[in-house]
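OP here, attaching both records as promised.
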Amino acid sequence: MPKVGMREIRRAQLIDATLESIDQAGMSGTTLATVAQRARISTGIVSHYFGGKDALLEATMRHVLRDLGAAAQRRLKAARPQPRARLRAIVAANFDVSQVSGPVMKTWLAFWAESMHVPALRRLQHVNTRRLYSNLCAEFGKAMPRTAARRAASGLAAMIDGLWLRGATTGEPFDTKAALRLANDYIDLLLDTHASARARQRA
């Protein structure tokens, strides 16, 4: 009789091993066997819990995305209610320590590449992209009309992805402060420009 909670413990152990394997060997060098070896269990147990490599990567990315969601909730809860502060909180969540460690960044890159070929991963990527866009739209929408808010959300989402991708591919530790500074400057530019235009219209 398996111990209560053993399934969750085993899955967490295998997800950690997957992150380590992708970090050290890349996606092409990561197999059920290498994950099993790092977790010090049999390959059959990995197959039992995940079935195959795609399912294992999907579970690993769901874990990373849960960390991202938790970081966003934590930062939004602590932020002031104004759109500027909440937008900065969303940005900060995307550059949270849980998202910029070496293993996680390499797993994100592998996930993006694989999502172009694996439908389940593509759906997961679509959900993540839509969630970020929706959250940004909601906050920009408190400060500007819907069309402008959508455009601003698209621009900021692209900037977040671009800063993250550039940082991930430098081979150096991620410069979180620089990324935050650039993204926050963009938020300030959008909000201040809109506020100035609105003030001119009222004058």
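Record two, same layout:
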Amino acid sequence: MTMIDTHSHLFLEEFADDLPEVMERARQAGVSHIFMPNIDSTTLQPMLDVCRRYEGYCFPMIGLHPTSVRAEDYEDELAVVARELASGRKYVAIGEIGMDLYWDQTFQKEQEDALRRQLDWALDYDLPVVIHCREAFAPIYKIMEDYRSTHLCGVFHSFTGTADEAQRILEFPGFYLGVNGVVTFKKSHLPELLSSVPLDRILLETDSPYLTPVPYRGRRNESAYVQYVLLKVAEACRCTPDEVAKQTSESALKVFGMLK
């Protein structure tokens, strides 16, 4: 049984002391691919270094995270994304992008502008997008409506929204819901919600080092723990773990352009 971790930040300093061991545990757990979303210009080189070190196992994305969008320098940050896209370097997606109004709404307009421009680039370069959405579903969905007739595709990373929001995302045929350790939390509503979501519209992720699943909640997350997400999704969807592993892996390879 093999699984794909579609969202993991193993290039962050939390893994500086034991990255080889983290990677080996992921392999032993059956993780066949790890997709790595960028955050901003400060994380670009560390991410590329890890993907180069583990070429063929770790795959980079390029994008500007919404919490890194600030009025004074977001244009410069977007210029880095544009430069990388034009460089010919192989990126599997534009991400992680989106909007985050949980901590601060000061730069909402700038976040909306950054999102639109990166969605346009996704179409230009025929790449999927990985969308970060925190307390921002309404403005993100309003923007996405303008792309309904395009071939835009991707994943709503770390989906924790309502059943209605899930159905509205799934109206876009090329979009998937990214499910991570939150699904294992005691008070999570996701197991009930996922029971009505087609299995072929779900992707597995960890968001390492964050959102560690039960039974390791409270510790640093890592890609090997995607197995606990898989087991909970299998329970919620009334499928076998093998079925979930097979379908979510096939969907991940499809959306990230590896089945073309």
